[in-house]
């Protein structure tokens, strides 16, 4: 652990402190929060309706339409016929919400990636894809997984609906300055161990409130070795550790990802931007409020067994015993699991591959590699939902859709889908679902649904065997064991 830093000093600074400082319109005082300038405001259909109503009721205009980007994701159907309008959208509340977003965006001049757009997708997938997400920006959205964008060295966090209204009207936000935490990940992830396993292991270690009040900076050799998509998986789940945001210093991997994207700077502007972005890195000697060390080499594929993401173990471990812990017992009762029970070999009924955590091309590739030329187990339903239209197109261009369909999985239209089931894609009561998403709360994937969070590789191997299986067994070349 390190000592509290003095916020008035100028050097050396952390990545977070640099971005914060550059966006302080009015600094925080003992009695008042800071006023922060917001560079990018992302909007979706669930948390924006009341905010637009607020503007309307106060007769206000939207302050910066050019810094506001909207998409439809949470309530969108994944059935191509509903998307195209050949059949009506089945979930009425979803259809209403989508319509309302369209009306609001038209009235206030917001750039909307609507149902028919080939750039539509989950808000945290399309921001980076379009190059709207950039290092050093402040990015907000009425959505807790906005931390995803921190993978680029942006300060990105979720806000409430009232705050969405404030940002629409003023492009600013009242905010108290959070504390800082460094998570230093040394070593390298082993074969079959993914970024998802890393973040699950981190949450297992620090707990679901371990990051409360902090912005986490993930750093160290294991983080630097990650691709942008892997970094997004890690930052995405910062909120599940209670943190306000997660950040990773921008580097050549970041710049290579962004170059040439629609909203990325070009020509001399690009060169100037890269120079600016390079300077965002935490200065040597900068202090964090807290430092946690993790050894990547020691991490195994992880799986959750309970009803929050901190209830997680290495896949080969048994359900932990916590005598006298009523919350633990309640959680296990919901999950239909016993203390001391092995998780490996547990039968599952559903596999969901998708979400803003693991619905990108590399995630689909990871799963397709497992499923290629094979069939999923009889009785297992596997839903593959790309994170965006672009991910879908790219996956189809390299034949991943065929691999999934031939294996017996369903290949769907992009959106949040079964991550939270707002569009009607649900897990039945009592069924076990291995899900590549980020939340396993009671009822998250449907009333009574039991969610086990894991990586795309673990999810795909479970689909093949119909049981929880160690993906390393499969990668080692062994035919996945029929338990
Ligand atoms: C609907 C939205 C407000 C919510 C969030 O904030 O995270 C959702 O995206 C989720 O993942 O639970
Ligand atoms: S995919 Fe899931 S976690 Fe991500 S924004 Fe959608 S509902 Fe939230």
Automatic annotation (TrEMBL):
[4Fe-4S] cluster binds at residues 356, 416, 419. Pfam families: Aconitase (PF00330). Its cofactor is [4Fe-4S] cluster. It catalyses: (2R,3S)-3-isopropylmalate = (2S)-2-isopropylmalate. Binds 1 [4Fe-4S] cluster per subunit. GO terms for molecular function: 3-isopropylmalate dehydratase activity; 4 iron, 4 sulfur cluster binding; isomerase activity; metal ion binding. Gene3D superfamilies: Aconitase, domain 3. One of its GO terms (biological process) is L-leucine biosynthetic process. Keywords: 4Fe-4S, Amino-acid biosynthesis, Branched-chain amino acid biosynthesis, Iron, Iron-sulfur, Isomerase, Leucine biosynthesis, Lyase, Metal-binding. InterPro entries: 3-IsopropMal_deHydase_lsu, Acnase/IPM_dHydase_lsu_aba_1/3, Acoase/IPM_deHydtase_lsu_aba, Aconitase_4Fe-4S_BS, Aconitase_4Fe-4S_dom, IPM_dehydratase_rel_enz, IPMI_cat. It comes from the Bacteria. Pathway: Amino-acid biosynthesis; L-leucine biosynthesis; L-leucine from 3-methyl-2-oxobutanoate: step 2/4. Its EC number is 4.2.1.33. Heterodimer of LeuC and LeuD. Catalyzes the isomerization between 2-isopropylmalate and 3-isopropylmalate, via the formation of 2-isopropylmaleate. Belongs to the aconitase/IPM isomerase family. LeuC type 1 subfamily. NCBIfam families: leuC, PRK05478.1, PRK12466.1. This is 3-isopropylmalate dehydratase large subunit. It comes from Steroidobacter denitrificans. The gene is leuC.
């Amino acid at each position: 652990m390190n000592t509290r830093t003095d916020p008035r000093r100028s050097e050396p600074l952390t990545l977070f402190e640099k971005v914060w400082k550059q966006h302080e319109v009015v600094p925080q005082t003992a009695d008042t929060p800071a006023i922060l300038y917001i560079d990018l405001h992302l909007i979706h259909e669930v948390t924006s309706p009341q905010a637009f109503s607020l503007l309307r009721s106060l007769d206000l205009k939207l302050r910066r339409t050019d810094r506001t980007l909207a998409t439809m994701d949470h309530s969108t159907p994944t059935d191509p016929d509903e998307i195209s309008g050949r059949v009506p959208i089945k979930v009425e509340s979803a259809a209403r919400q989508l319509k309302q977003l369209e009306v609001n965006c038209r009235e206030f001049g917001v750039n909307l990636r609507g149902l028919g757009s080939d750039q539509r997708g989950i808000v945290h997938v399309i921001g980076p894809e379009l190059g709207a997400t950039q290092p050093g920006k402040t990015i907000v959205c009425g959505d807790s997984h906005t931390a995803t964008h921190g993978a680029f060295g942006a300060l990105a966090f979720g806000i409430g609906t009232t705050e969405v209204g404030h940002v629409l009207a003023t492009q600013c936000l009242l905010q108290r300055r959070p504390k800082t935490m460094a998570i230093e990940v040394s070593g390298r992830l082993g074969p079959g161990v993914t970024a998802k396993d890393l973040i699950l292991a981190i949450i297992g270690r620090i707990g679901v409130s371990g990051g409360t009040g902090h912005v986490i900076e993930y750093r160290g050799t294991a983080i630097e070795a990650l691709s942008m998509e892997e970094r997004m998986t890690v930052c995405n789940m910062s909120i599940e550790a209670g943190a306000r945001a997660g950040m990773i210093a921008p580097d050549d991997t970041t710049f290579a990802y962004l170059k040439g994207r629609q909203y990325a700077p070009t020509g001399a502007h690009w060169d100037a931007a890269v120079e600016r972005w390079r300077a965002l890195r935490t200065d040597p000697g900068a202090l964090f409020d807290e430092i946690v060390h993790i050894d990547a080499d020691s991490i195994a594929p992880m799986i959750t067994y309970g009803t929050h993401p901190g209830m997680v173990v290495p896949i080969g471990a048994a359900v932990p015993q916590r005598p006298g812990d009523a919350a633990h017992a309640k959680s296990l009762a919901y999950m239909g699991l016993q203390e001391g029970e092995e998780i490996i070999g547990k039968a599952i009924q559903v596999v969901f591959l998708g979400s803003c955590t693991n619905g990108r091309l590399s995630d689909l590739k990871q799963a397709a590699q497992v499923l290629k030329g094979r069939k999923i187990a009889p009785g297992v339903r596997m839903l593959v939902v790309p994170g965006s239209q672009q991910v879908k197109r790219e996956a189809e261009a390299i034949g991943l859709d065929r691999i999934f369909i031939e294996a017996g999985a369903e290949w769907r239209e992009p959106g949040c889908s079964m991550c939270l089931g707002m569009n009607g894609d649900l897990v039945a009561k009592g069924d076990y679902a291995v899900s590549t998403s980020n939340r396993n709360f009671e009822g998250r994937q449907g009333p009574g649904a039991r969610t086990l969070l894991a990586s795309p590789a673990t999810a795909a191997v479970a689909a093949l065997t119909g049981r929880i299986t160690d993906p390393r067994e499969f990668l080692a070349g062994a035919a996945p064991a029929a338990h």
